[in-house]
Amino acid sequence: MSTEAQTARPSRLIAELRMLLMAVQYFTRVPMPAWVGHSAEHLSGTARYFPAVGVLIGAVGALVLWLTSLVLPGPLPVIISTAFTVLMTGAFHEDGLADTFDGLGGGATRERALEIMKDSRLGTFGTAALVLVLLIKIAALSALPVTIAIAVLIAGHAFSRACAVTLLFASNYVGNPDQSRAKVVAQPMSHGELLFAIVIGAAPMYWCGLHALAGVVCSLIVLYVLARWFMQRLGGFTGDTLGATQQLTEIAFYLAVLASWNSI
């Protein structure tokens, strides 16, 4: 191997590590070392690591779920675990879910819907969607044995983010680039980047067994329905609708796995 190749390999690995850490920094509240930095140029390639961030969030939630299940009864471990995952992201995706339903529920026109989605106030549609999604998450995971819920939690967080990346790849950004935090990461992706994200998002399903197939099918159906809805109402996606996609495909995954588990 030439000297140039030997030098290029670690440089490439460091660049990819930095991009991964920048993705963690962007999508969560986890502090990163100063050398990771924060630049629009590098953030534009972080979307493919979105599912990897989901693995991290799901793993932390799973650890909290397991530890609290040793000492607490009923749904409390799942509630606390869910709270930890929300805190890790700063309710980033939950905020997108609420804004999406406020905008699409209260805006009769595309322009009005986009205007409402940028309003920081929480409306009736957004409140209802947020409460229902959180309740469904907690109820679905609580209905599974803890050992299964741990695996499903990680897989759901990872694959739902792969679904959001798929929407990003297949549609076009229609938000206001001057007001949206998501514009910097909502850049066109290559087929290779999409495949990388899907592989990372699907990998944790190994520990869910065949039940994961039901979760995949249900999540993809929800993704398709959402993509059609966003295209018809908005003409594409925004940062908020990506958050809504992640949340809704996540609960679709949990519900489908639970249904598959109960059918045995």
Task: Give a written overview of the molecule.
- This protein is mainly alpha-helical and 264 residues long.
- Helix 4 crosses helix 7.
- The relative contact order is 0.14.
- It is built from 11 helices and no strands.
- The longest helix is centred in the first third of the chain and has 25 residues, at 3-27.
- The chain has helices spanning 3-27, 40-43, 50-69, 76-89, 92-106, 110-117, 124-142, 146-170, 191-202, 211-234, 239-262.
- 72% of the residues lie in helices and 0% in strands.
Please write the string of helix (H) and strand (E) elements. Answer: HHHHHHHHHHH
Alpha carbon gyration radius: 19 Å
- Helix-strand category: mainly alpha
Strand content: under 5%
Mean pLDDT: 91
Stretches where pLDDT is under 50 for at least 5 consecutive residues are: none
Q: Helix content range of the residues, please?
A: over 70%
Helical stretch count? 11
**Termini, distance in Å?**
54 Å
How many strands? 0
Which term fits the overall shape?
globular
Main sheet? none
